[in-house]
Description:
This protein is α/β, with parallel strands linked by helices. It has helices spanning 13-21, 43-52, 69-80, 100-105, 131-148, 164-169, 172-176, 183-193, 213-230, 232-261, 265-286, 305-328, and strands at 2-4, 31-35, 56-60, 86-90, 94-95, 113-124, 159-163, 196-209, 330-331, 334-339, 342-347, 353-357.
Amino acid sequence: MIVPCKGDGDPYFGENLLGIICQEYTGPAQFIFCVESQTDSALPVLYVLKQQYAQVEVCVAGLATTSGQKNLNIIKGMEQAGPVDIFLFADADIQPHRTWLQEMIAPFTEPDVGAVTGCFRRVPAMAEFRLGNYLAGLFGAGIVTGMTSDVISGLWGGSLAIRRAVIEQLGLQERLATEIVDDIAIMHALHQARMERRFVPSCTLKSYCDMSTPASIEWLVRQFQFSQIYFKKLYFFYYVFGLPYAFSILAAPLAFTYGLVNGSELIVSATISFWLSVILVGLLLYRGIPVNPASVSPHDIPYQLIPWLAVTPLAFVAGALALLKTLLRVKHGILTMYWRNIEYKVDVKTGKVLEIIR
């Protein structure tokens, strides 16, 4: 298992890593935690874990120059790993239940399965209402639909297992060495090779969320940019559906007022029906794939339904803003992406990293 780390600022960082290590797994497992440099604030925590657990290793990958930093961490982790048949990539902010690893590996008993993915649901890190946390929760719930769909066949890098043979067959290590992102690049390669991936609903994990409004919008900008690079038809669909829907949300109060003033029952009823549809979408996102109950703690604070539904229209408008930002960040075929305090210049056609600014 390879876990790229960047600092120790994720909520419950040390607890997350313990949850990753302390698994009820019947087979041998090696845990490699990767950072970019010796100055990374995650290292003291990682070295303590290395002393406590014989199966834990620490990898210092160095600074990326031709790929996303997370990609380089993964590559160096794979190089440090022993002769394993399956790699599992995990994010440091997940909170897995004790049988998660076993459940992620189980589908590989079927020879046609090339990769296995879980997905995530955000959980607020604090009880107080914070707009950024609710926006991030709604954005994440929307992204999860791509993980569950066999049409999109999404992959999530926070819980992604793949055969070594598939990595070698598709030249994935070479791709990761020059491209911006791990999971979407792997997903793109699997689509091209028409290779099966398996989604495991029980591996829907919680991820504690403590995000500001600008940070949550920036996260969504980055997700749209990945589609802008790798799945251009999907990116076009976002524009065809997302922008008109957001405009309708903004126009609905004016239309409702106009209908009332002019006594138009048709306009009033149409506006009310539209708002009910927005609320229904919010409810469906709220009720989506649940976190595995084994991962839920008694101290977890779930999103509250009424604030969630109230923020749903804002999430669509903020999503449209994020979508428009993706256009503004492409000049002469070069896309600018901000990720973990690093600025990347990326070829919008291929996803190859052209320049890294720290």
